[in-house]
Amino acid sequence: LLVFTDLDGSLLDHHSYDWQPAQAWLDRLGSAKVPVILTTSKTSAEVATVQKQLQLTHYPFIAENGALIKLPADWPGNSDDVSGHIIGNSYSEIRQTLVSLRQRYDFEFRGFGDVSKQQVMDWTGLSLENAALAMQREASEPLIWFGSDFDLAHFEKCLQAENLSLTRGGRFWHVAGREAGKGSAVHWLTGQYRQQRDQPLVTIGLGDGPNDIGMLNATDYAVVILGHHDHAMPLDNGENVYRTRQHGPQGWKEGLDHFITL
Ligand code: 2M8
Ligand code: MG
Ligand code: MG
Predict the structure, then answer these.
(1) Cα–Cα distance between 220 and 228 in angstroms, integer?
(2) Which residues hold their Cβ within 5 A of ligand 3, which is an ion?
(3) What's the CATH architecture for 91-177?
(4) Residue-wise pLDDT tens digits, 60-86
(5) How far is the C-alpha of 71 from the C-alpha of 58, rounded, in Å?
(6) How far is the CA of 261 from the centre of ligand 1 (A)?
(7) Residue 123 Cα, ligand 2 centroid: separation in angstroms?
């Protein structure tokens, strides 16, 4: 078994970033040596901190919506081509494109690169220290859109023409390279685990937002955690999908209770 999980609004509470309701399951998975792979739009700097708190540092993680895959030091084989490398465009390239599109079309948005730490704290409820970690972007930009839906559709077309993609997280829109995505990162890592193990491997994904759809389609079983948004979460997995009645870490627990008997 492999577990891929989103953080905000899934393993972590959308507002308090707490995971206590999920702790008993984390302990159980830990004793059973089931890898729990954090798969998130957070930065590497943020995930490294959360991984320590959750005692998951011996596993790989996926950051910035799949634009970064980090493997532990003892990972077998030569995976230098991925680990620590950016999939898609670098943050400075993304910022340059965003700034020039805004100059050209007067698009109304503000990204993390446009604002102060205080503004990121106000938007997210993160502490000063954690807001600073969230601003250490390497390969994706979260932004708040202030314009019309019509302009947003135009913005998305412009991004596509620049080989960038737009996806929706819990609070922000996220811009990253088109090759990046949680789904392809999960697919790649699952392949790595399958090569390393002889026994068949089952995967389960847990997520609450549209940016998790790729991940949830890439796993055998999917837990759609009740989100704080009204986006539909259409999935391909058919019968292997469970939609929770509870939010965040309560929903996370509910989903694993539904699918796993350990
Ligand atoms: C941003 O991402 C969340 C995830 O769904 C969002 O869009 O609401 C991130 O980019 C991240 O770095 C940050 O920690 C988080 C804080 O709410 O917001
Ligand atoms: Mg989320
Ligand atoms: Mg996320």
Answers:
(1) 25
(2) 6, 8, 40-41
(3) 2-Layer Sandwich (3.30)
(4) 999 999 999 999 988 887 666 777 789
(5) 9
(6) 31
(7) 15
